[in-house]
Amino acid sequence: MKEQKEHINRRSFIKRAWAWLGAIAFVELMAITFNMFSPGKRKNAANSSFIKTAGLVDDIVPGTVLPFKNGQFYLARYADGGFLALSLICTHLGCSISWDGQKEQFVCPCHASVFDDKGNVLSPPAPRALDAYKVIIEDGVVMVDTSHKIRRKRFEKSDLVYA
Question: Domains along the chain?
Answer without folding.
Answer: 48-159 (2.102.10.10)
